[in-house]
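Re: beginner question about structure tokens

> Can someone show what the tokenized structure looks like for a real chain? I only ever see the sequence side.

Sure, here's an example I had lying around. Input first:
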Amino acid sequence: MSVLEQQQQALLKGLLLPASEFAIRNIAVCADSMGVRGLKVYKANGHALAERALLAAYPVLAQMLGDESFSALARALWHATPPQCGDMAQWGDTLAEFVAASVQLADEPYLADVARVEWALHTCTGAADAALQPATLALLGSHDLDALTVQLAPGTAVICSPWPIASLVRAHRDDGVTMTQAATLLRNGHAEDVVVWRQGYCPRVRNAQPGEAGFVSALLQNLTLGAAIDAAPQLEINNWLSEAIETGLLMAVHPL
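And the corresponding structure tokens:
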């Protein structure tokens, strides 16, 4: 390894080690006071970048934790799992697992699932576009359901939780649920499943219908429509189809 490569590796260690006093020992070029100040500036910039990136992806979690705690969380994640590419919009996918493993947040176990919902909303924003194909919907009345597959909206995801995560996220997004309602559901230990998708260019989130989580999960695994219905006997399929078409969740139907 060349001297330059050694210096670059030392600089990376210095930026990513949590404690600056230990980090500085790893950087020979920072032996003088100017180098120390430069390292601190780099680290401060990295922390600020981490906070902005996470805030863009997790605005609800930021509201729930408060500014100071969320900033500390962003810095901790930056050191635990630093970015692996230059696009910071792709960084932060490990936050839910990081929160779930946090001793400091153990008293609020629902936060990890809130983070999962927010990351699903964040990623569906950048999912590849798909055009609605309304003519294909006629196949629903002319083909055996076991011979049809369904194309769902970009970024569609399902998150199942023992906590009222749909209500918590929607309350903080001012999306038809009040804070009082969400707090009551949380206090009562109400479980909720969530459906996330993109309607046009707008990320959407709502409570799943009874049986819908299993149904949508089956469709995402490319099972036939008939097989997905069999996997979700609780689901009122006619009501689901109507709502899915109206809200842009269902994009097209394809024959095998």
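Each token stands for a local structural state, so reading them left to right follows the chain. Residues 1-108 form one domain.
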